[in-house]
Amino acid sequence: MPMNDMFYYDNRLSRRVLGYILLCSVLLSLVSTGIQLYSDYKDSLLRLEQRFNNIETSYIPSMATSLWDFNKSLMEQQIKGIADLPDIVYVKVITDLGSTYDVGDESNTVQQLFRQYQINYGDNEIGVLEVYANYADIYQRLWQKAGVIIATETMKIFVVIFVIMLVGHLLVARHIYRITDYAQQLATDNLDVSLHLDGRRKNKDELDILVDAINKMRIRIKDDIVKLEEAENALLSLNGELEVKVFDRTAKLQESNAQLQQSLDDLTLAKDQLVQSEKMASLGQLVAGVAHEVNTPLGICVTSITALKEKVDALKKAVEDQELTKSQLSDTLDLLCEYQQIIERSLDKSVELIRGFKSVAVEQHTDPELRINLAQHVNDVVNTVKTMFKRKKYNINIELDEQFEFVTFPSAWNQILTNFLMNSHIHGFEGRDDGNISIKFTENNGYLTLLYQDNGHGISAEVKKTIFDPFVTTKRGQGGSGLGLNIVFNLVHSKLGGTITCPDVETGCCFKVKVPVEYVESAVIRESIA
């Protein structure tokens, strides 16, 4: 690199180094100049003090003789000799007779160095010598010397800086610029070109070690690029094989997913069919129970009608034979009225049973959303379900608001209450003929809460963890499907938009159902079924 290019680079490091050198040089020059000036100042003060001592030892005796002899001319010469000494500005002699001799400017005596000496001749005090010195000459000499020192130091600093820059450029900077140019131009297409510095000695220094390290790094980079290209080619080959494997496995996965989806659809269909079968089985049990219950009052009606017919035939024969008496007619009429009342009560009971069953059965199939009277609906469901365990002595306690009406899916409540009651009958009261069942409805803050509880055998902690899962039953192989409470869970969550839990109780089991209540004035009100 030519000499005129040594300042071409915007080298901040060189600027900082140059600035540090300049700052250190200036500070050292200032410190050395200050020390030298202070030393000269102390020397000047010491020389001034020596002059004062010289005046006392050399001039005072001769001046005493001059005053004693009243040699005025000699006294004036002696005073002038003292005033001509360096830094002495004013000299004054006062005799004991009141005479005064002085040389110099008395105005410069303010705030100056002052000395006073007694003039004695023998034992006689004949006068006083006053000498005044001024620091102005000392300061002037120091300023002149400081100017010379600063000028020489400045020249020295600039010469040193120039020499350092020149030597630094020749020995270091130009080689660093060469290394920088090489590093900037280094690329994958010129890795074969090595770095070489011109004008280097045989003995290696730090720059030569740096050049060797860069050349070794260049060779390693070249080798790494070759290895990287080989690895890239191998990776491309592996990617091709991997894409083929991924394609094959994707096809197999799609086929497996299709099979799994078909299996899931089959399982869902089977579950729906099982749920429907469970509902139909429950409905069949209700039909059998209601048919059995209806058969009793209808049999009483048939018996009463047969007896009624016999009495009517006997009354008719007595009329035809003209053997009818008043007492016979009165007894026959009383008996007919009694038969009529028996038939009427039996038919009313049959109508009530059929109405309740029709209410439950129709709503389970049509599934409308209606506004119902909660008390009437619960009683219909309970009375219908009770036909399936009429021989049991269960005490069913129902606690609710008789006037409460709300909009809901009656079929959902039919299924929920039916499953709860059947679970208590089949599982809770197994091996027992009696039991207590509590059905309690409360409404608060827009939510209707059902708390169902019995005092049966209860549910074990292990079964309770999965009580609402499908196919969970303790009667597997004995007719239990394990779908009863799962149906209840789905109805509560999906259809009624509520929650169901199985709280812990000391005796029996308990279910808590909480659903939001909807009030709609224009909703359809279920008509009583005759």
Automatic annotation (TrEMBL):
Q: Which residues form a coiled coil?
A: 214-277, 305-332
Entry's transmembrane regions: 20-38, 157-177
> Does Oxidoreductase appear among the keywords?
no
CDD domains noted in UniProt: HAMP (cd06225), HisKA (cd00082)
Pfam families, per the entry = CHASE5, HATPase_c
EC id: 2.7.13.3
Q: What is its main location?
A: membrane
Q: Which UniProt keywords are given for this protein, alphabetically ordered?
A: Coiled coil, Kinase, Membrane, Phosphoprotein, Transferase, Transmembrane, Transmembrane helix
Can you quote a single GO CC term?
membrane
Q: Do you know which Gene3D superfamilies this protein is assigned to?
A: 1.10.287.130, 6.10.340.10, Histidine kinase-like ATPase, C-terminal domain (3.30.565.10)
Statement: the UniProt record of this protein carries the keyword RNA-binding: no
Subcellular localization(s) per the UniProt record: Membrane
Ranges of residues in domain HAMP:
170-226
Q: Where is the Histidine kinase domain?
A: 289-519
Molecular function terms in GO for this entry?
A: phosphorelay sensor kinase activity
Source species, domain of life: Bacteria
Known catalytic reactions: ATP + protein L-histidine = ADP + protein N-phospho-L-histidine
- This chain belongs to which protein, by name? histidine kinase
To which species is this protein native?
Thalassotalea euphylliae
